[in-house]
Amino acid sequence: MRLVLERRAERSRLMGWLSPVVAVALTLATGAVIFSLMGLDPARALYVYFLEPVLWWWSLEELVVKAAPLVMIGVGLAVCFRANVWNIGAEGQLTMGALFGSALPILWHEFQSFPVMVLMLLMGALGGALYAAIPAFLRTRFGTNEILTSLMLVYVAQLIADWFIRGPWRDPQGFNFPKSVQFEGWQLLPTLGDGRMHLGAGLALVAVVVLYVVMSRTLKGFEVRVVGTAPRAGTFAGFSSKRMVWFCLLLSGGLAGLAGICEVAGPSGHLQPAISPGYGFTAIIVAFLGRLNPVGVLVAGVMLGISYLGGEAAQIDLGISDKTAQVFQGILLFFILACDTLILYRIRLLRPQTA
Amino acid sequence: MRKILKLAVATALLAAGAMTAGAANAADPLKVGFIYVGPIGDHGWSYQHDQGRLAIEAALGDKVETVYVEKVAEGPDAERAITRLARQGAGLIFTTSFGFMEQTLAVAKKFPDIKFEHATGYKRADNVSTYSARFYEGRYVIGQIAAKMSKSGIAGYVASFPIPEVVRGINAFLLGAQSVNPDFKLKVVWVNSWFDPGKEADAAKVLIGQGADIITQHTDSTAPLQIAEEQGVVGFGQASNMIKFAPKAQLTAIVDDWSTYYIDRTKAVLDGTWTSTDTWGGMGAKMVGMSEYTNMPDDVKAMAMETQAKITSGAFHPFAGPIYKQDGELAVAEGAVLNDGTLAGMNWYVKGVDDTLPQ
Question: What's the pLDDT score for residue A355?
């Protein structure tokens, strides 16, 4: 007897949409079991973990701050992955965007007026796009695999940033600590509420709406989907796969770069070697969790944000280790993938034939 | 599928039920919050701060309640974690890494009634104190031991970031070593991280490969000392007694002892006598201690204990002149002692360091 995965003849649309929900529910259930095994009241633990972060206004603001870069990068990657272009290097593009955008406030610190903020954002997007252009060029010119090139370029970008922040861009009054001068006035993004929620969140929302419209209502969106699902059909329709590679990488790179400068000019306020805690990589998860759909990405970004915030709340309220947050994210992804697999396949028990 | 749906509904109900059963604790005891940069299981820096937290609980019992968040990244995430402690009713918050400086000040501004204590920083406010320990006193002692124990006359130093704190440690170590052997050499590898066992181990291997038979570190994991143990050389524990990890290799460890300071500051908040201060205590203030001297001959041990006693009593200062900079320029004249201001911002090597300070 053995188990086999058998492809289903038809995939259910309803289940396609429901699967993340089921996965989340299963995660909650598993979480409850884990918490009870740890001797904690599972109801209280789940409350602290998943509800507390969204029950307070300040916490909601923090959630927006945490989710904004994930969503902004995630929507770009969703388009990319739809077209079968595998940009794994968003983290590097984010780093480059942060560097490009920070050039102005660091080199011309006295430049203080509205245009400086606009220029910073544009430079950030440009930096990310230019950096993504490298794998695009390599792929279209030499046929190299963009998964490898974009991933490897992440480390290059981080080392370049490291050199700048420890070297020429270090704050002269910073006691040799690797950090740039603190940005001021117009060099910081305007904020709302408690002073943490910044313009970047608004830009992320704009990106979601724009890309949703582009993907569902325009020829370009159609082109992305056709080239992604049936490259040959795309060729017959006159869509250039090379142009698609350029479009996807420049778009996702630009958005990652924008997210980078928003982090630096928003909640951080200065450049330091650790620009992001891996947003560029987490955004890959967000893109898939959101079913490569811009609106789905928005939901997924918020979901993952909750799991980070909940992890902290759980540490403080329940006194459990930060590892629990990571275990939770792992469980969530496991169930998502498992549910997805079961949409496409069914499990069958094969009995050995006696003949 | 049906079953899965059933389970989903059950979970949703569970969560909804939990909402009503929310937290409603009486806020009588003083809540003391801690932010750690590493995991408390690092057995080094964050571990010792956590020992300090436990000491508060032991000393003050039910007058306090302590909470912590570990492995908080130095950046925007730190501000959120500190804010959360503040929002959840902490009356006193210790932020225990240099990289939390701007974030501590930002949160402190929003919560003027909460007291903040930032370790190793230099920016203060009415409700923000800073504190640090004179670890360099311990470094001088281990430098002396290193020079006595080394056959090659070369020590390897696994260093984190080229900030004054670390540079000062390197200088104090070498000055101690040179007081025994004027030709003693020191090689430095920068790993650019406070806690990265893999990189720290690699650095230790490289240093041993270059002839160092003494390994010392200014990073938080036990990895360099474990490599020393593996490769048959000796070294020193950092921040915490690491003898469990290197029973044959650890000569002694510089132990950060935050207990006294933490208990005093918590008491001050309870009594209402807390004010913003800047504390920089050493062996005399019991903030820096040395773990048991092991794996060394008696005469070396006697020398180390004598130096430790002299530093504790204030009879001797590790940065007493004459001290020459790396390029030979006289930094401190004979009979003078380097002042705290210069020590706090130290960004030059003393003569004999075999490394260029990353500038």
Answer: 52
Mean pLDDT of chain A: 89
Give yes or no for a contact between A102 and A117, defined as CB atoms under 8 angstroms apart: no
Question: Which CATH number does B30-133 carry?
Answer: 3.40.50.2300
Contact A312 B74 (CB under 8 A): no
B80 with A66: Cβ contact below 8 A = yes
User: Is B11–A162 a contact, with Cβ atoms under 8 angstroms apart?
Assistant: no
**Which residues from B are below 8 Å from A315, CB to CB?**
67-70
Q: Which positions in chain B touch A263 (Cβ < 8 Å)?
A: 76
Q: Are the Cβ atoms of A43 and B102 closer than 8 angstroms?
A: no
Helices (H), chain A: 13-37, 42-46, 52-55, 57-82, 90-107, 114-137, 146-166, 199-217, 219-229, 231-236, 241-263, 279-289, 294-318, 323-344
As its CATH architecture, domain B135-255+287-354 has: 3-Layer(aba) Sandwich (3.40)
Q: Where in chain A are the domains?
A: 75-298
The phi, psi pair for B280, rounded to 5°, reads: -135, 90
**Amino acid identity of B198?**
G
Average pLDDT of chain B to the nearest whole number: 89
Note the pLDDT tens digit of each residue in A234-279: 888 888 889 999 999 999 999 999 999 999 999 888 998 888 888 9
Contact call for residues B253 and B217 (beta carbons, < 8 A): no
Contact criterion met (CB < 8 Å) for A44 and B83: no
Q: How many CA atoms lie within 13 A of A43 on its CB side?
A: 12
Contact assessment for residue B162 and residue B344, using Cβ atoms and an 8 Å cutoff:
no
Nearest CA in chain A to B346: A175
Q: What is the ipTM of this complex?
A: 0.77
* Residue B211 C-alpha, separation from nearest chain A C-alpha, in angstroms: 29
Domain ranges of chain B: 30-133, 135-255+287-354
For residues B141-170, give the mean pLDDT.
93
Comparing CB atoms, the residue among B8, B14, B99 nearest residue A32 is B14
Q: How far apart are CA B311 and CA B317, in angstroms?
A: 6
Nearest to B169 by CA among B330, B319, B337: B319
- pLDDT single digits (tens) B290-327: 999 999 999 999 999 999 999 999 999 999 989 999 99
